[in-house]
Amino acid sequence: MKITIHRGYNQIGGCITEIATATTKILIDLGHNLPKGNQPSDDKFANEEAIKELTNGVNAIFYTHYHGDHVDLFKYVPAGVEQYIGETAKQVMLCKYEILSKSDKVENVTPADLEKLKSFKTFHVKQKITKGDITVTPYFVSHSACDAFMFLIEAGGKRILHTGDFREHGYLGKGLIPTIKKYISQQPVDALITEGTMLSRLNEKVLRETDIQQAATALMKQYKYVFARCSSTDIDRLASFCQASKATGRSFLCDDYQKKVLDIFTKSAGTKSDVYKFDDVYYYKHGHQNQFALIQNIGFCMLVRSKHFDRVKELLEQLPAEQTLLIYSMWSGYIKEGENQKSDYAELYNLSEHKKELHTSGHASPETLAKVCNLVNPTTAIIPIHSEHSETFAELDISEDLKGKVTTEDIIKI
What we know:
Number of helices: 13
Strand order of the largest sheet: 6-5-4-3-2-1-19
Radius of gyration: 22 Å
Strand content: 15-25%
Largest sheet: 7 strands, mixed
């Protein structure tokens, strides 16, 4: 097999990996480059002509999860190229893109984009999907997205593991190593393609999602009115805030779009773990005086986004400052001065007199990366992607033999 890293070994996001035999070709992820701050993303692949050339001869595209830096170029894929994603991930994407289709923002999507998304084929855990002489098997991984997967790709007696984005410190992260032991490493793996987002933070202490929940609970005991800013599709972080809200006996509030996403999570992941049962979530109708009187009495945790700036500002003017807190639970680079700052994120963060950053990465810690490399123990290559510091893979706690197999070549044959 031939592995081509079209994009990813020297950047976070925008991942595109091609795996081919003499007769079959597949892509893993077709992600849009991440933007810098409020500036539009610069992406040479974000057009039909470029994607038509890239997908020429491709039998299928498999998406690890629904984050835009892994899937957003789907709209440019020519008709006839099959695209696959997890069943729940597709539902979340449809929910998101239906909202965007009604927006006048730059990221607006067209009816044609929606139809293409509706045509996505879906898969489930351990389902073997064969395209030509390549077989792809998805296995669940814990990430800051629901329904995320790694892929085992097999052809001609060769085996490749593509991890996608993953972590061990999420609520279901404890299943990572047992899954690899039971289904992957019992037979030789020739190449390991793995994310390396955290390679730039080798000494950073990584909080567990349970730590986030406990810290949020403590803060909600201290403050009666809490506004929480996190990703609207980060299932673990949403669960952390929901569980903290339940533990402190307050209302858990959100807008209508967020409520739809949480309902999807409850019907899917909620059947596997109670932590994902968002059954005490209420749609907040801004300006409804009876509802405001109720939540003012018992307290609340309200999920907010940048579009809610005016709403949050108005509520802050009506609530006692000493009892009010804004929790920011996303990457700190978005609110700090610099090229990555998103002004609307920073403005919302600075609204409240009392605020707290409370976050942990959706990506594997250096310790977990080393653990996976040692366990998979590929015979030929370790290929870091989704990283700005792939060269530091050799600094992980892995054997000298494995360090010698780390490669940042664009094309690898096994």
